[in-house]
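Late entry, written up from scratch paper. The run itself happened at the end of the previous shift, but nothing got recorded in the book at the time, so transcribing now.
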Amino acid sequence: MSHGGDNAGVVGRKKDKVVVCRDLKEKIMPLLYSREDLEVVLWPEDRACERPWLLENIKGAAGVILVLGEKVNTEFLEAAGPNLRAVSTMSVGHEHIDKVEVTKRGIKVGYTPDVLTDAVADISVMLALMASRNVGETIDLVNRGLWPAFSWSPFAFCGPQLSTSTPNATRTVGFLGFGRIAKATLSRLVPFGVTHCVYSSRPTSKPDPVADAKLAKELNIQEVRRVSMDELASQSDVVFVLAPGGAETRHLINEDFLKKMKESAILVNTARGTLVDSDALAKALRERWIWAAGVDVVEGEPNVDQTHPLVKEPKCVVLPHIGSATIETRLAMATLAVKNLLAGLDGKPMPAPLIT
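Output as recorded:
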């Protein structure tokens, strides 16, 4: 589907072709269609853009809006040709973009951080609650019609309480990665009675105990403290995985880490599937090293079916990467993706640049 402006635009000037790999719907697409200097080529179906279509239509394009599924690699860039000057991805993740090749060609790249902070923080807390309270198992019981035959017992389907209680006067949450989403998640957990926060960050970042103390005071909790990976594992009642993906962080959550966690602990991953060794986590759940897990991301997704080791574990809640799936967040992401693209085409600074 091709859509240009109503008029011919600037006389004698050829329109810039822009390829859009997903229909951003009626609230967003007019931001592109209203530009008379653009020829908008839209993948017309509400599913993954087919690679042959993309490689054919990207020829001669000045800009492209895409999502995580579309790889921007040498094949893509050579098909596009020298006119391409702006790539905008409607995602925070950018593993699908060959940053070396893009930089070499002087192409600007924008992405969509910040706008999904609240949505991912919300779902992080939700997964912690779902995992700790055995929601996966209990919903399955109801859906399979087994509730009438279920024999109640005093401790059936009980799990560790996320909030503080008489036997548990302290609650420690841990974060692998302590950026915006982690801090937003922590602020949501404080009303539950969380008393301590520990976190592990990238080795290249310097510890800042003054900032940690200030945050603890602002949130009215006893402590915010940077710790080693071993301490993160052993001290946390819930570990939230919220670090960036990539080769450097692959399988940071492995057998060694999981064995150091409390038997009553919960693991939540709403960052990238590659951070967690799925086989190790399944083993940890099967052998009861930890209590439960909740994951919104899985290594190798979306190729995750009933035979996947985590799906087979009753104490693992698996969601299909819906962390940013609120109407408000997706509208904000789509709007930012368009604004990044238009700024890149106009020679202006992108609102959220990845590569300038």
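Residues 5-113+328-355 form a domain with the Rossmann fold fold (CATH 3.40.50.720).
(Scratch paper discarded after transcription.)
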